[in-house]
Each structure stands twice: as structure tokens, then as C-alpha cells.
Design a protein that fits this description.
The protein is of the alpha+beta class. The protein folds into two domains: about 1-65 and about 165-195, Alpha-Beta Plaits, CATH 3.30.70.580; about 70-160, Alpha-Beta Plaits. Helix content is about 20%, strand content about 25%. The chain is built from four helices and 13 strands. The radius of gyration is 31 Å and the shape is globular.
């Protein structure tokens, strides 16, 4: 029986969805696995590791920053990355939506990876370099914004790892079923137990609430009295003959 987790090496310019959108390539062009959905996203112009699952709790644990699964990226940047820039990435970078959390950042030798199609534009007078960047949060296009903020724009972005899972032995455009690690399974069980406790607690509070008294007589819920209609008989009016 296949597992409920898939590892996919997403190519460049592939939408992280199964539904069609214009003429853009999607996951449906590569993966035939009904009821599986991405656990987190990877931008159209980014490459690399994407996890998919058919289990809601597992999807939440992988995608949520609350569970702190580190994500490691291999990033080709414009220019020779400096130690000062790496130090800034490690400390945290101020972006428009706040300061990033401290990251692990190291200079990386050019990795032995697949050719990108189309290739990164080459400029004779501007060198490039690679870094390994590990983060534990998921701001929109965060890695690209981080490298730009320290003066080294991203040219190519590959997600190499999510927690213990890596791209090793998975060629670009290929996928395979994998098993959740023991730690990941424990996180899923803990999340499901917490969810059950919250549901049970919410149900107890709901059943223990006192009903508000219904409208009775001449009062309204805030205790004010409604003006009574007079019961005194009205004088009968006599008709006058003309």
C-alpha cells in the first residue's frame, strides 16, 4: 500500500497546483495521485523539493511554521557573496513585513545539479555565487527578499530540504512515495490530540451555558417593563343626529 506522503522535485516554471491556469505547466503534468495536495507552496519560478499528502493533519504540520520544520534552500545570487552579507542573513533581515528570524547561512560550492530551462542569464562582467540558506518561517517570497536586502539578488532558487527530506536521488520532474519519519508522525498525533481536546472543551462550554429567559409577559430581556395597555373602558361616543 502506498504511503500518504509524496516527494516531488518541481521543475522551474511549474505552478504549485493541479488546476489549469492558462497555458502554464502544473503539477498535473507530472503527478498522477488522486486526492494528494501540496503541503506548503513553492513559487512558479522556484525549483526543488515539494511535499504532497492526502492527510489533512500531515499537511498542516508540514506547512505550518508553528511546527518549525526547517527548510533549506540552495540560492544562486548575483555577485560574490560576502561574509558581512551572510552575517546579516544569520542575524535577521528587516523586510517590509517585519524582521526575519535568524537563519543558517553558508557559502556553497557550485552544486552538481540539473540544468535549468531556460538557463540563468549569464553576464561576463558580473560573477555569481551560491549559498545554503535554512529558514524556519514562510513569509511571501522570503528568500528572494532576504538576499536582495543584503545586496545580492537571487538568480536561481532551489529548495533542497524540508526537515529530514531532501532532493537526493530524486531527479527533476520525478516523484516517489515516502514514509513520514517517527518524529513527524508524533507531531501529527500530538496535533490531532490537541484538536480533539479543543473540540471537546468547546462542546462542554456550549452545553453548560444557561439559556437566556424567554420573553414573558410584559418584560423584555433587560428587565424593563413594557407599557401596559389601559384596561379602563373607553366612553362610547354618541352619534348626533343632524
Amino acid at each position: 500500500m502506498s504511503s500518504n506522503l509524496i516527494l516531488f522535485n518541481k521543475p522551474f516554471r511549474v505552478l504549485c497546483q493541479f488546476s489549469a491556469e492558462g497555458e502554464k505547466s502544473t503539477l498535473a503534468d507530472y503527478i498522477e495521485a488522486p486526492e494528494f495536495y501540496p503541503a506548503g507552496r513553492l513559487d512558479f519560478d522556484s525549483e526543488g523539493l515539494l511535499l504532497l499528502t492526502n492527510q489533512g493533519a500531515l499537511q498542516h504540520v508540514i506547512a505550518s511554521p508553528d511546527f518549525k520544520l526547517p527548510k533549506t534552500y540552495w540560492v544562486q545570487v548575483e555577485g560574490n557573496i560576502t561574509e558581512n552579507a551572510l552575517a546579516q542573513l544569520r542575524k535577521g533581515v528587516a523586510l517590509k513585513d517585519g524582521l526575519t528570524k535568524p537563519a543558517q547561512a553558508e557559502k556553497l560550492n557550485t552544486p552538481d545539479i540539473w540544468e535549468r530551462v531556460p538557463a540563468v542569464r549569464h553576464r561576463e562582467n558580473i560573477p555569481t555565487s551560491w549559498i545554503s540558506l535554512q529558514i524556519r518561517e514562510g513569509k511571501n517570497r522570503q528568500v528572494r527578499r532576504m538576499t536582495a536586502a543584503v545586496g545580492f539578488p537571487t538568480l536561481r532558487l532551489i529548495r533542497y530540504a524540508i526537515g529530514p527530506y531532501t532532493l537526493d536521488h530524486t531527479p527533476v520532474g520525478h516523484w516517489n512515495h515516502i514514509e513520514p519519519t517517527d518524529d513527524l508522525s508524533k507531531e501529527v498525533m500530538s496535533f490531532e490530540e490537541q484538536k480533539k481536546r479543543k473540540t471537546a472543551s468547546s462542546n462542554r462550554r456550549g452545553s453548560g451555558e444557561k439559556r437566556r429567559p424567554e420573553f414573558q409577559g410584559n418584560t423584555i430581556p433587560d428587565g424593563k417593563r413594557v407599557a401596559r395597555r389601559s384596561t379602563r373602558p373607553k366612553p362610547t361616543s354618541r352619534t348626533h343626529r343632524k
